[in-house]
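Q: Got a minute? One more chain.
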Amino acid sequence: MTPSDPSADAAPFDHLHLNGEPVAYRVEGARTTAPNDLVLLAQDTDLSALAPWAAPGFAVVPGLPAPAQQALQAGLADLLRQALRAADCPVGPDFDIRHYHHAVGEDPARHLAVIAQTKAYDLSRLPVAPALLEGLVGAACGQAVRAHNPHVGEAVFHLRIVRPNRADHNPLHRDAWLPRYHDALNIYLPVAGSTARSSLTLVPGSHHWPESAVERTAGGAIYHGVPYTVPGVLRPVRPLTIIRPNPGPAEVLVFSPYLLHGAAANLNHDATRVSLEMRFWQA
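A: Always. Here it is, folded:
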């Protein structure tokens, strides 16, 4: 798709409903050309095709064995503490990362300094062997997978940090609107502060929707004044049913990156949400 009139930059709707609550939604960016009936997943590798959850496009599955899951979460929490210290926030070894927003305070430079470190880690820094998560995801989808992106030749993981009542989350989008994320499968693993009011949101079944089902920005969206690399939904053409699967601390959410997801506002009163995000491709 190519951009149409670059001046067409106002969002056609201004709120979503999450668990019955209206949440502000403001996306800006040039619209694409007229929608078409292309289904992106129909022309790519569908790693959800053999799974019992192929129709909704996601599942909450048991996580790693308890010692490994806990070691992973503890190690990821420590990576965040290290990032805070490097951003001039001197937190101790037992700092509760749910209080991240208190540590960075109102200084946007500190938050951005942390994000610059946590947005992508080399897989060698994962606190557990990557093969453990590859095995978990492979079992969930019924196909062998590996945490290596063949499109760009990288193997990384991400720590997502979403402060309460801040626009730290992406707009509604498909990862597959970016070519480097084609053919993949995603996981969302809670680390801290992930609740029924803060966890990732998605639209079940939308991985099989044609592009004509939503209007989106042509390039990276501006969401609540914050620029993102991924395009964002400007207006849904068909009704959106947005849910929070809300995996528990011993669970993992596995989902297709072709699903509409994001806009996961953290409605916790006083807890930052931290999660592990990783992608997997056919082995």
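A: The chain has one domain: 38-210+239-282.
Q: Perfect, thanks.
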